[in-house]
Structure formats: structure tokens, C-alpha cells
Amino acid sequence: MDPMTCHQLAYRIQQLQPDAGARDVARLCLLLTNLSDDVSKLEDDGLLTSTWREASLRLQAATDQHAAMTEELESLARSDPQEFTPDQIWVLIRAIKVQGQILQLYLGEPVLDA
Predict the structure, then answer these.
(1) For 39-86, how does the pLDDT look when each residue is reduced to its tens digit (9 = 90+)?
(2) What is the pLDDT of residue 110?
(3) Quick one: which of 52, 66, 74, 71 has its CA closest to 100?
(4) How many alpha carbons fall within 13 Å on the CB side of residue 33?
(5) What is the DSSP letter of 93?
(6) Of 112, 102, 113, 7, whose CA–CA distance to 63 is shortest?
(7) Contact 52/16 with Cβ under 8 angstroms?
(8) What is the longest distance spanned by two Cα atoms in the chain?
(9) Second label for 73, Cα 20 to 30 Å away, from 4, 48, 50, 108?
């Protein structure tokens, strides 16, 4: 059996989510291949659907965390760095961790832990 190509996976994603734009389909292709140990298993409709749902949940969680962290960072950017409190330093550390989680989703491999 030949391995599934990106084009075939994109077609299957478009069948699941017909209103998805090209960027969303490409993003889902990347996320799905990173979550699957064997892309050819995604030919099974049930496994594709469950992996797609898992990818969507992970992406939504990371997006929500990123949005919340962006608000905190914008507030932090308005303050004087020379007067940062320990809580503000923790905001920066959490921001680094959130960015790492997003990178891990897209790279499909662990990133350095902060």
C-alpha cells in the first residue's frame, strides 16, 4: 500500500470540513501528520475523524492560552522593565512555555522546556 500523500490527506480534510480555507487545510494536514505515528492509518475514516478532533482541541487550547498570554504581555509591555515584580517575571516564563507548546504542535516534536 502506498503511503498517503499530503494532497490525499488535504482532500479528505476538505470532505470533513468543506468550508475550510486553504490555510486551515494545510495547518490541519501538518497537525494530523504530527499526531499520527503512521499517516497511512488516517485512511480509516474513524481514526481520521478522532485524530482530527484531537488536533482541533489541542489547537483550540493552545490558541486560547496564546490569546490570554498576549493580553498579559501587552499589559506587561506598558510597564517599566526595571521595576518588574516576581509575578511579572512569571508572566514572561509562562509566555515562553505557551510559545513552546504551539511550536510543539507544529513541529511534532518536543521543544526545550523552560
Answers:
(1) 888 888 898 889 888 888 888 888 888 888 888 888 888 888 888 888
(2) 66
(3) 66
(4) 16
(5) H
(6) 102
(7) yes
(8) 62
(9) 108
Complete DSSP assignment for 13-39: HHHH-TT--HHHHHHHHHHHHHH-S-G
Across the range 84-100, mean pLDDT stands at 85
For cell 475550510, name the residue.
20
Indicate if the pLDDT at residue 11 is higher than 90. Answer: yes
Which residue has 486551515 as its cell numbers?
24
Q: Report the b/e string of 75-107 with b at 16+ CB within 10 A.
A: ebeeeeeeeeeeeeeeebebbeebbeebeebee
Residue 9, C-alpha cell as written in the block: 490527506
Q: What is the pLDDT at residue 113? A: 56
Inter-helix orientation angle 22-35/86-107, to 10°: 90
